[in-house]
Amino acid sequence: MSNSEETEEGKKLLESFRSFRERSFSVLNYILENQKGAPVSSSKIQEGLGLTPSNLSHAGKILEDARLISREKEGYTPNLGVLLAAILEIVLDIDKRVKSIEEELSRK
Q: What is the pLDDT of residue 29?
């Protein structure tokens, strides 16, 4: 994958993050906190977050479409490479915005 493709992929992922609802973030956070090297079962997530099967399925689909998690027979696992890339993209975006603000303030 070229740098421009990676940047475009990162931008898409950042946009996905912006469109997430609280439930998707809660599911992702729960999976990250509880996976401990093994997939987290649907029943454990439902019980831990008080979700119905359809709520979990919907949130899981959103996270899968963003490639942040994978659904396997045993449960859900985080895609740590994609998550780290997303975090890096967010940090770079924040850095760019801060520099822009600093430049604007220094001109005043």
A: 92
